[in-house]
Amino acid sequence: MLKLAVFDFDSTLMDGETIDFFAEELGLGEEVARITEEAMSGRLDFFESLQRRVKLLEGLDFSIVEKISHNLPYMPGAVETIAELKSRGMTVVCFSGGFRSATGYAKNILGYDADFSNVLHEKDGKLTGLVGGDMMFSHSKGDMLQRLQNILGVTEEETLVCGDGANDLSMFAHAGTRVAFCAREILEKEANIIIKEKDLRLILEKI
User: Fold this and answer.
1) Catalytic residue, candidates 8, 115, 164, 168
2) Among 30, 96, 104, 194, which residue has the fewest nearby CB atoms (within 10 Å)?
3) Which domain holds residue 31?
């Protein structure tokens, strides 16, 4: 019986990549999206890619960051799927290599219990190009998942994880139910449930 569900945020609970939306404000959308794709496909170290992308955002008004973060397009079925999992007695958590400005705001809208993500450093109302937080490295999600399992007394077999990119591989290594959602090939190879359509409710039919 499943007791814990962990979802990625960007391109899983949310339809798109938060950092790409930020970059578009600076006319750097294509450049940042290219680095994002390299990282999500496993061709570029996640930590290095995150630092490179955030550095490009230096000077962006933090008010714009908040406005974008509060108006993101959530994935079809996200609210219903989380509500159903919680009705089955599961704890639902979001792990994101993205940003607290987005995951913290989405928490009460989508209904998950907690979010672990990164924080964009801002000073005098503008981004400094620096970032810190819970999910900085390629191994961060797996590390945090093991800690959560220990705290909650949940086993790997009682854990469901869902994501789309290479930085989700580390949490796939510690879960019995592994959902690749509209995912890169590198993640699909490690999944035991593969969803190809942008509708999270399809997960409910598989578990």
Assistant:
1) 8
2) 30
3) 4-205
